[in-house]
Amino acid sequence: MAKEVAAEGVLIRGTLIQAFDASRRQPEVIRAAAVFVGDKRLKHFTIYRSDFDFDQERSGRPVLSCLRPAPFEVGHIYERLVLMPAKGKDPIVNGRWRFSFFGSVVGGKGLELLADEAAKRGRFVSRPPSDPKYGDPVEQAVE
């Protein structure tokens, strides 16, 4: 997983600036406040949504949790979010992203592996601030 994210994905801190809206066929847009892995010039990430995604939501049928994370409102901050380039034959896919469920690379040993792999590929920008909720080591106070 770390190799795949290091090669093509991004690890960012970002804010949701456009929420998913099936009735308007509007995908999520996330603005990066910080890029930890990936191209640091990228600032806006539009999520790819297929017709199925929009139709499934509009029909009132339950949407599979693997299609997207819980719906958030504009202004939601993702402290550590992994996005991968969307792939497919539909031309609208180009330049869009998909949510990744590689949560194991956002903290702790997984983050170390990701940082090492991304550094080898020239895609490492910086480490996110240390946070124990992601399994990061707790920094000890010096007495």
Number of helices: 3
Structural class: alpha+beta
What's the multimeric state? single chain
Average residue-wise pLDDT:
87
Uncertain runs are none
Biggest β-sheet description? 5 strands, antiparallel
- C-alpha Rg (nearest Å): 16 Å
Helix percent reads: 10-25%
Biggest β-sheet: strands ordered side by side in the sheet: 3-2-1-4-5
What is the N-to-C order of secondary-structure elements (H for helix, E for strand)? HEEEHEEH
How does the overall form come out from the CA principal axes? globular
N-end to C-end Cα span:
39 Å
Please provide a written account of the structure.
The chain is α+β, with helices and mostly antiparallel strands. The longest helix has 13 residues. The radius of gyration is 16 Å and the shape is globular. The N and C termini lie far apart (39 Å).
Task: Give a brief rundown of this model.
The protein is of the alpha+beta class. It has helices at about 1-10, 50-60, 110-120, and strands at about 10-20, 30-35, 45, 75-85, 95-100. Strands 3-2-1-4-5 form a five-stranded antiparallel beta sheet.
Please describe the structure with a list of short key phrases separated by commas or semicolons:
alpha+beta, 143 residues, globular, 23% strand, single chain
Topology readout:
Layout: H1 2-8, E1 10-18, E2 29-37, E3 44-46, H2 51-59, E4 77-85, E5 97-99, H3 108-120
Antiparallel strand pairs: 1-2, 1-4, 2-3, 4-5
Helix pairs in contact: 1-3
